[in-house]
Design brief:
Radius of gyration of chain B: 24 Å
Structural class of chain B: mainly alpha
CATH topology of chain B: MetI-like fold
Radius of gyration of chain A: 22 Å
Low-confidence stretches of chain B: none
Largest sheet of chain B: 2 strands, antiparallel
Mean pLDDT of chain A: 89
Largest sheet of chain A: 7 strands, mixed
CATH architecture of chain B: Orthogonal Bundle
CATH superfamily of chain B: MetI-like
Structural class of chain A: alpha/beta
CATH architecture of the largest domain in chain A: 3-Layer(aba) Sandwich
Distance between the termini of chain A: 78 Å
Helix content of chain A: 40-55%
Order of helices and strands of chain B: HHEEHHHHHHHHHHH
Low-confidence stretches of chain A: 9-23
Number of strands of chain A: 10
CATH class of the largest domain in chain A: Alpha Beta
Shape of chain A: globular
CATH superfamily of the largest domain in chain A: Periplasmic binding protein-like II
Number of helices of chain A: 15
CATH class of chain B: Mainly Alpha
Oligomer: heterodimer
CATH topology of the largest domain in chain A: D-Maltodextrin-Binding Protein, domain 2
Number of domains of chain B: 1
């Protein structure tokens, strides 16, 4: 008798919840069973169950590859798409890939969940009609550090330049130059060679404590104690803050100087299965799926429905590392595509920087 | 045609045809392409385009020469250290009386190859890190107060290179020592040569082919090393391989990368010439 009571209670408790979930759950359109989707995404940039759930919902197989920088992804696609259906370029890179006809247009009709996207994030400057891209996640580039190394915190980049210990920068030339150019009072997206070289010299002069220019794994170096400060993307630092469940690490946009970026889902040219890629876009833009993604990778969500529905953990929504306060947001720079000439200037300056950095 | 065919059938030169084709398609042709690209201008996204230019060679011998020299220096030092460790090691192994000991010693030299090179290099990061094994032990023993900066230095690169390439030095020398007849040592000493003289005039010249082969096998891959400096060197241990690699990313400079590669190939060729001529002289002795 007791058992039956427990059983009934259990059913009563579980059932409404299950029904609720069913109502919210994203459902896959018919007709994709047995197909394959190949995704090329940034490292540590997806939740554990995002892909398995999609595979289960649609009855498809997903190949998942990762890259460490826009440049690395771009190089692969430019040499001939090796078979990817979906890539996740940042704003300026979307613009560039579109110009080079490396992206194919998406059909918004196939992606009803576009309605969930925050209005400000639709029709961005780099893709004014959302012809090629839809937002994936966004975040900032700033500095993660060990709290015990900076008892007074970090209030400006000067604190980092002057730090007597190990520092890691990030292999993201546009961002590193953008920071130096902003500090020097220039446009972070300048195409002026003198300004770029001045920024290079500024970085070399202040980079004596840089032990490595990390390929998007600065958070790991922090965790291992190899460096005390790492220039990194916000979510990567949030991930280790979350992993250690401690107060050892902090993230800051020093003196409000840093950049804000938007990563986007797009379909590269010659994608074998663009339709399924669009189905996946719709899946990612689902309120629950998008929230789960943010809850796992701690990057900011461009999904209004995810935020409104309460699926995103309160803790994350209120975390200034993930969602910077509005007054800080206004000062952050956005990297745009600067054209062929500036690209070469920055490439040369970056090589020269690497040769002399940390000596 | 048929006469040529019959003649080549007789002298066996046809046997070299597959190799010759292989070399043509996979060595000569790519080399010509790389050489061509190295003389072109950089286009959008780092690809090669017209017109022809020598800028990339100017840059290679200009600002990049710092890193080029560093790479040559590190590779040279690696070769010397490998030789200093590998030469006695090869003698140790080949002079073991019991076959089982010799075989297991050889086996131990080859054993590291069973693990992926990348993983072994990563392991050095854990050993050399500021909170790594070596610093931990030294601190626990009270030898040092503050952790030493081992990782992300040229020292770390050197350690990684010597560790990685030591077998390439030890094995060819071992093969040479194996063929060495120790009665020559007795003969030299009977004739009044002291130990130093015996070594310099008898042992060393007769094992020289192994030494030269070992040096070539260590120097050539070290000078272009890319994984080791990438993982262990940080900003201070940057080598030319890393800079070449950077040129082939999305916004790099493929013509510059090609020019750097050509110059590096020239360095390798030079060291091979040393090997060939050294060997010839060795054979004449």
């Amino acid at each position: 008798m007791k058992h039956i009571l427990v059983l009934i209670l259990a059913v009563l408790l579980v059932f409404p919840a299950a029904a609720d979930d069913d109502m919210a759950a994203w459902s896959c359109p018919e007709g994709y069973e047995g197909q394959t989707l190949s995704i090329f995404n940034w490292s540590t940039y997806i939740a554990e169950d995002t892909v398995p759930n999609f595979e289960a919902a649609c009855g498809v197989t997903v190949n998942y590859d990762i890259y460490e920088s826009n440049e690395a992804m771009l190089a692969r696609i430019r040499q001939g798409n090796p078979g990817y259906d979906l890539v996740v370029p940042s704003g300026g890179t979307v613009q560039r890939m579109a110009e080079e006809t490396l992206l194919v247009p998406i059909d918004l009709e196939m992606i009803p969940n576009v309605a969930n996207v925050i209005e400000d994030f639709l029709a961005p400057a780099f893709d004014p009609e959302n012809m090629y891209s839809l937002p994936y996640q966004w975040g900032t580039l700033g500095v993660g550090y060990r709290v015990d190394a900076f008892p007074d915190g970090i209030s400006s980049w000067d604190d980092i330049w002057a730090y007597d210990g190990s520092v890691a920068w990030i292999d993201d030339r546009d961002s590193m130059f953008g920071i130096a150019l902003t500090i020097l009072g220039y446009d972070p997206n300048t195409t002026n060679g003198d300004e770029i070289n001045e920024a290079r010299d500024y970085l070399i002069e202040h980079g004596g404590n840089v032990v490595t220019v990390a390929a998007d794994d600065g958070q790991v170096l922090l965790e291992r104690g190899e460096v005390d400060v790492a220039v990194e993307y916000s979510g990567d630092i949030s991930q280790i803050q979350w992993d250690c469940e401690c107060e050892d690490y902090a993230y800051v946009l020093p003196g409000g100087v840093g950049n804000v970026w938007f990563d986007n889902m797009a379909i590269p040219v010659d994608a074998p299965n663009p339709e399924l890629a669009m189905v996946f876009m719709d899946y990612i833009l689902d309120a629950k799926v998008g929230a789960d993604l943010t809850n796992y990778i701690w990057y900011a969500s461009p999904n209004q429905a995810s935020i409104d529905s309460g699926y995103i953990d309160e803790e994350i929504l209120n975390d200034p590392t993930v969602f910077p306060p509005a007054d800080q947001m206004a000062n952050l720079f956005v990297i745009i595509d600067k054209g062929a000439e500036a690209e070469q200037l920055i490439n040369d300056a970056w090589d020269e920087l690497l040769i002399f950095l940390g000596q | 045609m048929s006469r040529w065919f019959r003649r080549s059938q007789k002298d066996g030169s046809l046997l070299a045809l597959p190799t010759a084709l292989w070399l043509l398609v996979f060595f000569v042709l790519p080399l010509v392409i790389v050489l061509g690209v190295s003389l072109m201008s950089r286009g959008r996204g780092g690809v090669a385009q017209m017109p022809l230019t020598l800028t990339h060679y100017e840059r290679t011998f200009g600002i990049f020469s710092i890193i080029l020299w560093r790479s040559i220096g590190l590779a040279g030092l690696t070769t010397v250290l490998c030789l200093l460790v590998g030469y006695p090691l090869a003698f140790f192994i080949s002079t073991r009386r019991r076959r089982i000991v010799q075989q297991s010693a050889l086996f131990l030299v080859i054993l590291p190859f069973w693990t992926n090179f990348l993983i072994r290099t990563y392991a050095w990061r854990i050993l050399l890190g500021e909170e790594g094994t070596i610093n931990g032990v030294l601190r626990a023993l009270g030898i040092i107060g503050e952790p030493l900066q081992l990782l992300n230095t040229q020292f770390a690169v050197l350690v990684g290179l010597v560790y990685g390439f030591l077998p390439f030095m030890a094995l060819p020398i071992f093969a040479s020592v194996e063929r060495f007849n120790f009665r020559y040592v007795d003969a030299a000493q009977d004739l009044g040569a002291n130990e130093t003289r015996t070594f310099l005039r008898v042992v060393l010249p007769l094992t020289m082919p192994g030494v030269l082969a070992g040096c070539a096998l260590v120097f050539i891959p070290s000078v272009g090393a890319f994984v080791t400096p990438d993982l262990l060197g940080g900003t201070k241990g940057l080598m030319i391989g890393n800079l070449i690699n950077n040129q082939f990313g999305g916004s790099g400079n493929m013509p510059l990368g090609s020019a750097l590669s050509i110059v590096m190939m020239a360095v390798v060729m030079l060291s091979l010439l040393v090997y060939v001529f050294g060997n010839r002289r060795g054979a004449g002795l």
